[in-house]
């Protein structure tokens, strides 16, 4: 098992356009709806109230307009509103992962097919990946409201319509089965799995975090500024249970994907995942570390392809 550490510690990926502080004037110029949420902090710098879900949602909308040309983006109330910089980091490190098998050159354009498991109502990973690298995406989700929301975003933006497809996962017991079509191949899969094992476990963790806030008023709110709805946040067995199930199902399509990947929030879970991958017969496993501020995150990647199969894949798909 290989762990690839981020040499540029506590900073976003070098190609991530969100490495600098937010320029709220430019963002508000691209998205005027952001302006009412901009305020000065105690140092006299412009910011927003990051504990306000509406402010965070509007910031995301402004970032997607300004950096990715997405003219319409919205999510239903209460659904996950993710951090755009962190999501972009995952995409850029995935590009590096593919480049490692392509003589250091990132495969770009329609020849690269990506599968986003649990794309959510926000559809952010496919948006960033398609706009930054021209990749084709299939986004799947078990929640019909999330599927409808993501589909609406895609259809409302001409730059996304030909690059992103959204599919409903009809069976909540499965991850790939039912949405991975016969004979379909993906160069990479990605996933931000449910973190908690149950709604009650999530509530307990959320209360603990809010007790650590300086603002008692914020602590009384007891809400997540980034939202989240049902399967977006919890799964029986938590993220280990979800990723283990993904590993088990990946065996059935092991020759139809170059790299399977998933975020892993807790480093302590890696040992069990490595064991599951060994049992599944993965030929190569990597753990890629990422960082955002003081937070260290990571994703695990595995493949069942042998070196000669990787070479054939590269030559026939990326070098046409």
From TrEMBL:
<dbReference type="InterPro" id="IPR010286">
    <property type="entry name" value="METTL16/RlmF"/>
</dbReference>
<keyword id="KW-0489">Methyltransferase</keyword>
<dbReference type="InterPro" id="IPR016909">
    <property type="entry name" value="rRNA_lsu_MeTfrase_F"/>
</dbReference>
<keyword id="KW-0698">rRNA processing</keyword>
<comment type="similarity">
    <text>Belongs to the methyltransferase superfamily. METTL16/RlmF family.</text>
</comment>
<dbReference type="Pfam" id="PF05971">
    <property type="entry name" value="Methyltransf_10"/>
</dbReference>
<comment type="function">
    <text>Specifically methylates the adenine in position 1618 of 23S rRNA.</text>
</comment>
<keyword id="KW-0808">Transferase</keyword>
<keyword id="KW-0963">Cytoplasm</keyword>
<keyword id="KW-0949">S-adenosyl-L-methionine</keyword>
<dbReference type="GO" id="GO:0052907">
    <property type="term" value="F:23S rRNA (adenine(1618)-N(6))-methyltransferase activity"/>
</dbReference>
<dbReference type="InterPro" id="IPR029063">
    <property type="entry name" value="SAM-dependent_MTases_sf"/>
</dbReference>
<protein>
    <recommendedName>
        <fullName>Ribosomal RNA large subunit methyltransferase F</fullName>
        <ecNumber>2.1.1.181</ecNumber>
    </recommendedName>
</protein>
């Amino acid at each position: 098992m290989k762990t690839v550490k981020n040499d540029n510690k506590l900073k976003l990926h070098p190609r991530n356009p969100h490495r600098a502080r937010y320029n709220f004037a430019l963002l508000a110029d691209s998205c005027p709806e952001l302006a009412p949420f901009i305020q000065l902090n105690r140092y006299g710098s412009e910011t927003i109230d990051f504990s306000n879900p509406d402010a965070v949602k509007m910031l995301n909308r402004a970032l997607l307009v300004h950096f990715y040309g997405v003219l319409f983006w919205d999510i239903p109330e209460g659904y996950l509103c993710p951090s755009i910089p962190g999501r972009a980091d995952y995409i850029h490190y995935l590009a590096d992962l593919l480049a490692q098998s392509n003589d250091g050159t990132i495969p770009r354009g329609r020849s690269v097919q990506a599968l986003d498991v649990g794309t959510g109502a926000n559809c952010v990973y496919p948006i960033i990946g398609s706009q930054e690298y021209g990749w084709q995406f299939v986004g799947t989700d078990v929640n019909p409201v999330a599927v409808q929301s993501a589909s609406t975003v895609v259809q409302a933006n001409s730059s996304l319509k030909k690059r992103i497809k959204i599919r409903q996962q009809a069976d909540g017991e499965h991850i790939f089965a039912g949405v991975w079509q016969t004979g379909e191949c993906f160069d990479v899969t990605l996933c931000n799995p449910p973190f908690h094992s149950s709604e009650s476990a999530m509530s307990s963790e959320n209360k603990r975090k809010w007790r650590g806030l300086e603002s008692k008023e914020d602590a009384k709110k007891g809400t997540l500024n980034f939202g989240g709805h049902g399967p977006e946040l919890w799964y029986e067995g938590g993220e280990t249970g979800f990723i283990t199930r993904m590993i088990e199902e990946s065996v059935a399509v092991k020759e139809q994907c170059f790299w399977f990947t998933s975020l892993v929030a807790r480093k302590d879970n890696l040992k069990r995942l490595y064991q599951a991958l060994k049992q599944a017969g993965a030929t190569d496993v990597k753990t890629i570390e990422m960082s955002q501020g003081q937070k260290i995150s990571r994703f695990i990647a595995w493949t069942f392809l042998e070196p000669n199969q990787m070479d054939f894949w590269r030559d026939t798909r990326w070098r046409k």
